[in-house]
From TrEMBL:
CDD domains: NAT_SF. InterPro entries: Acyl_CoA_acyltransferase, Ectoine_EctA, GNAT_dom. This is L-2,4-diaminobutyric acid acetyltransferase. It comes from Streptomyces flavochromogenes. GO terms for molecular function: diaminobutyrate acetyltransferase activity. Belongs to the acetyltransferase family. EctA subfamily. Residues 13-168 form the N-acetyltransferase domain. The gene is ectA. Residues 1-20 are annotated as: Disordered. Signal peptide: none annotated. NCBIfam families: ectoine_EctA.
Length: 176
């Protein structure tokens, strides 16, 4: 795992499946991200219950959630994990938590379900997510392709950027 630095102390973030009790914290982290489309608190509770097998939470030394990645297996392509959201609490951004989460979730789901590809959507202005997914692809010796999945005009409210689909695969083991 990637070291996590907090207050001059280096620890390894622990990643675990979510519990229903984590739902409110995941909502809080998403709300604080400034990048994500915020879902209702209810949806994060459901996600922790119904998609716990394709979700991972990073925890600090006290066990408090500091980041998460949610995903699901594509119904029409069960070898593809679609990453729905990935967020890290502001004080922990830039310390490798997001990469650790993505690596942990992909390894877990690959072991349990045999995935060979990850998909995610990223808005053109979200440079941090672009870097995260490209770095993940390099670590796993995978190619990245991109295409607009949902153009801005598809969204009911004005001001939403297009969502660009990133396809990453085929996945290999992470490089040491």
């Amino acid at each position: 795992m990637t070291p996590l630095t907090t207050d001059r102390t280096t620890t390894t973030p622990r990643t675990t499946p979510p519990t229903i009790a984590d739902g409110a914290e995941l909502w809080r982290i998403a709300r604080g991200s400034g990048e994500l489309d915020l879902n209702s608190p209810y949806s994060y509770l459901l996600w922790c219950r119904d998609f716990a097998g394709t979700t991972t939470v990073a925890r600090d030394a006290s066990g408090r959630p500091i980041g998460y990645v949610t995903g699901y297996l594509r119904p029409d392509d069960p070898e593809t994990l679609f990453v729905w959201q990935i967020a890290v609490e502001g004080s922990h951004r830039g310390s490798g938590v997001a990469g650790t989460l993505l690596d942990a979730l992909s390894a877990q789901v690959a072991t349990e379900h045999g995935i060979n590809r990850i998909e995610a959507t990223v808005t053109p202005g979200n440079l941090a997510s672009d870097r995260l997914f490209r770095s993940f692809a390099r670590r796993h010796g995978a190619e990245v392709t991109q295409e607009v999945l949902f153009p801005a005009a598809a969204f009911p409210a004005a001001g939403h950027e297009s969502e660009v689909l990133y396809r990453i695969g085929p996945l290999g083991p992470p490089a040491s």
